[in-house]
Specification:
The complex is a heterodimer of chains A (about 450) and B (about 325). Chain A has about 450 residues and is of the alpha/beta class. Chain A is about 40% helix and about 15% strand. In chain A, strand 5 and strand 6 form a beta hairpin. In chain A, helix 1 runs parallel beside helix 11 and helix 10 packs parallel to helix 12. The longest helix of chain A is centred in the last third of the chain and has 26 residues. Chain B is of the alpha+beta class and about 325 residues long. In chain B, helix 1 crosses helix 12 and helix 6 crosses helix 7. The longest helix of chain B has 17 residues. The chains are: A alpha/beta (about 450), B alpha+beta (about 325). Chains A and B meet through strand 1, helix 1, helix 11 and helix 12 of A and helix 1, helix 6, strand 6, helix 8 and helix 9 of B. Strand 1 of chain A pairs antiparallel with strand 11 of chain B.
Chain lengths: ~450, ~325
């Protein structure tokens, strides 16, 4: 270093004091931000965005089949003819015309709803947030399936709720497990605010609540006075049959239903909705106004135009066919390539396969090896609030081509063989490691 | 300086995310210092870009394998492109923790006792028996690390022998060879070394006190979760010893331009070498920029001085 070595110019000023935590606000954050930390696992997903990696991790809808010319023309017309309205603030509850159309969409699942009871939200993710905001105090319990949607778990954590999981099997949420969870939670003196459930083509489990169980689940919730939050983003993306009848179709007062255009049209518009009983809806509108003033008017009008001018149901059928081909490719590849000790389900819709690993294999611990082999998945622990799920993983088939899916499964099978060899060497792994800590173990929403 | 500087960041290593952040910060600092800077990932289009429009110098901010093991620098050598940082052979030595430890030990530095073993050895000889020998030799607690990785990925402090198998599996997830090292209780410090042409010089010693007691990935990259002191709150003679060790390691390993040594100062004031980084982090929570600022230096102009040194290399 010479005498002429440059001195500080202020770009990165010298700290005023010798001690620093590199965060001026470290003592001021709300308690609920605890756990919002860097995650070793989340950092690994950064590699998954590279084209060399077959990502079976993300859940981005594959919208390559959308008629972009039609969408472009509709948007162009929208701006040309209604630009002053589209680019203005709108109603906190959402556009009446779109709410009317949303009722038409829900009618496909047996729901008879009035547009006044619909609240448009910024994706159904915001609907989960608003419902939790108006119902939950810190320490309140939300019952969730085991596993459950990572985005919802994040919301419940942010509002300092306690999540109690109830088991699922191939037919979805197990009624006995639900009842047991409710009884045990109440016996412990805690307050249950609602059951959060994804009855159709579950994220991440891939299963669908059977027709036989639907009335049982509703009956249990009625008897125990538990509100149901029915999240149904994949309901129209079934492969084998007509849309499954929604829980809300048979229970108007005890169910808040959440829907979304993110999977049936395009997630970039960020439009979803909540259908709620009158009193709840009023509070949701006020909560929406305090959160965003209003859902984006432009997006709502664009979607409204798309629904009215395009054969959107035909487009959904195309999506179904595309996703079915990808599901088939994944299941075939798993059948052909994975070690016998693995188990997985064959989803009848949606985006995901839930894979259970051979005993002793930890999906989270294995992820670095998988990334080295250029394949990515989401470890099962991301979908539990209580640390379970280490022996499982979520595999997404929505985005890669069938050929890439097979290649990804081939790589994953090789990784698993190596990991099994390692576990054979070191045997059962008692106890837990001290060092690995992490905040959010799931990829961000823009990961393919 | 005329022409553009190319900052390489990203790559396919496990530390891609950290690398992107380091690259962004260095690029921003260079722009502030008046350089024309291009940021690029390392991918199949890189060579064509370098061939079509040669930068005046490359600044590799690549962490982890290919970035720190010398591979990318080897290719830059093939292209006769000047770059900031150590030459490939030195990178290979430094990035391999057991090899680097052996080199600095021969140079007279203290480094914790360690054993380096591949997975195959455990498989062939029986893991339980080998682990028993390891615990008997190194004692508890001990540190388990992948032999070649950074950002504390795959590293575990083992305080109970029952947790050693899980720690081994965690390390082997990042590579086929693991380093088991005696755990030295003490004060963790980082010491950057820069050489802009007049020989290596240590910058202020940074002390690291993670809230959770372990400077793992979360503690490294979550702002606020670690307390840093710069210069470290250690006696002057210990600070001098830390600086001397870092410079000695830099020299013994044949490093060029910059490095960061990670050290432990034990309760008796002895300085132990743990590892060295040839592409140290420059993220918002990294120690090197802290040390640079504490020394009154401008990050962009300092890296600019390294660029000048790289370009004027005979």
């Amino acid at each position: 270093m010479t005498e002429n070595t440059p001195r500080a110019s202020g770009t990165h000023p010298v700290p005023a004091e010798a001690s620093t935590r590199l965060d001026s606000y470290v003592d001021r954050y709300a308690a609920r931000t605890q756990g919002m930390t860097a995650s070793e696992i989340r950092a690994l997903f950064s590699v998954a965005s590279r084209p060399e990696v077959v990502s079976l991790a993300g859940g981005m809808p594959n919208i390559t089949g959308l008629p972009l010319d039609v969408v472009g023309s509709a948007i162009s017309d929208l701006i040309a003819h209604d630009g002053a309205t589209a680019l203005q603030y709108g109603s906190g509850q959402g556009m009446p015309a779109l709410r009317e159309q949303i009722c038409g969409v829900m009618r496909l699942e047996g729901i008879d709803a009035h547009p006044d009871d619909v609240v448009v939200t910024v994706g159904s993710q915001q609907a989960v947030d608003l419902v939790t905001r108006i119902f939950c105090d810190p320490g309140d319990v939300v019952i969730c399936e085991a596993p459950s949607y990572v985005g919802a778990l994040g919301v419940f954590k942010a509002y300092e709720c306690d999540v109690v999981h109830a088991a699922m099997d191939a037919d979805g949420l197990v009624p006995e497990a639900l009842e047991q969870a409710i009884v045990a939670t109440k016996a412990s003196g805690r307050t249950i605010k609602f059951l959060y459930t994804i009855p159709n083509f579950h994220n991440p489990a891939g299963v669908t609540l059977s027709a036989e169980r639907r009335p049982q689940i509703l009956d249990i919730c009625r008897r125990h006075d538990i509100l149901v939050l029915e999240d149904n983003p994949y309901g129209l993306l079934g492969f084998d049959a007509e849309p499954v009848r929604a829980l809300r179709a048979d229970e108007a007062e005890g169910v808040i239903y959440l829907g979304s255009f993110s999977k049936t049209f395009a997630p970039g518009f960020r439009v979803g909705w909540a259908l709620a009983p009158h009193a709840v809806r009023e509070k949701l509108v006020l909560a929406q106004e305090s959160a965003t003033l209003c859902p984006p008017q432009f997006s709502q009008m664009a979607i409204s135009a798309y629904l009215s001018r395009h054969d959107w149901q035909g487009q959904v059928k195309q999506f179904q066919e595309m996703y079915r081909a990808r599901r088939d490719a994944m299941v075939q590849a798993l059948d052909d390539l994975m070690p016998a000790a693995c188990q997985w389900n064959v989803p009848s819709g949606g985006f995901y396969v839930w894979l259970t690993l051979p005993p002793g294999i930890d999906a989270k611990a294995m992820l670095p090896r998988a990334v080295t082999a250029r394949v990515a998945y989401v470890p099962g622990t991301a979908f539990f609030a209580d640390g379970f799920g280490s022996s499982s993983m979520r595999l997404s088939f929505c985005y890669p081509t069938p050929e890439r899916i097979r290649e990804g499964v081939r790589r994953l099978a090789g990784v698993l063989e190596q990991e099994m060899e390692l576990r054979e060497t070191f045997g059962a792994l008692p106890g837990s490691l001290e060092a690995p800590r992490s905040g959010y173990d799931a990829p961000s929403s823009d990961l393919t | 300086m005329e022409g553009r500087v190319l900052v390489l960041a990203g790559g396919l290593s496990h530390e891609r995310d950290v690398s992107l952040r380091s690259g962004r910060r260095v690029a921003e600092a260079l722009r502030s210092a008046g350089y024309a800077v291009e940021e690029r990932d390392v991918d199949a289009s890189l060579l064509a870009v370098l061939g079509a429009d040669r930068p005046i110098c490359v600044v590799p901010m690549l962490h982890g394998e290919t970035g720190e093991d010398g591979a990318v620098r080897e290719v830059l050598e093939l292209l006769d492109l000047p770059y900031v940082g150590s030459v490939p052979a030195a990178c290979r030595t430094a990035f391999d923790k057991p090899v680097a430890k052996a080199v600095v030990e021969r140079a007279g530095l203290l480094t914790p006792a360690s054993v380096c073993l591949p997975h195959e050895t455990f498989r062939e000889l029986g893991a339980a028996a080998v682990m028993e020998l390891l615990v008997a030799r190194l004692g508890l607690p001990l540190m388990v690390k992948p032999a070649r990785s950074g950002s504390a990925l795959g590293c575990t402090v083992v305080r109970d022998a029952a947790h050693l198998p899980a720690a081994m599996v965690a390390a082997f997830a990042y590579g086929d060879v693991a380093l088991l090292e005696q755990f030295v209780v003490g004060h963790e410090v980082a010491v950057p070394v820069f050489d802009t042409g007049d020989g290596p010089r240590a910058l202020p010693v940074v002390s690291i006190r993670p809230d959770g007691g372990v400077y793992d990935y979360t503690a490294r990259y979550t702002a606020g979760s670690t307390e840093f002191r710069v210069p470290a709150d250690l006696p002057a003679d210990v600070l001098t010893a830390c600086a001397d060790v870092a410079v000695a390691a830099h020299t013994a390993l044949g490093l060029r331009h910059l490095s960061r040594s990670d050290l432990i100062v034990d309760d008796e004031g002895r300085v132990w070498f743990l590892e060295v980084n040839v592409a140290p982090g420059f993220t918002e929570t990294s120690t090197v920029p802290l040390s640079v600022a504490a020394d009154g230096l401008d990050l962009g102009e300092l890296v600019g001085s390294l660029i000048t040194a790289a370009v004027s290399r005979p």
